Amino acid sequence: MKAFVTGSTGLLGNNLVRLLVEQGHQVKALARSREKADHLFADLNVPIVQGDSLRAKSRSGIFTAEARSSQKKPSINFSRAIVYRLC
Description:
The chain has about 90 residues and is an alpha/beta fold.
């Protein structure tokens, strides 16, 4: 599975990226700070996309670049690494 994780440098996102990689999935991580992401994921082969999912200009550029960089869209997007529970 291909996954795109926003919020990848936070507590949940960081652990989610690691879990997905450990399970053999292809993961790309969105991070506002490339330096922080490079440090957190230095031991993993995870492409880092720098940007902010909350800023409209950044968001537009992120997904345009993402579309150009891969033939297929990710199978799943983890938005800001937040888990929603629907009751």
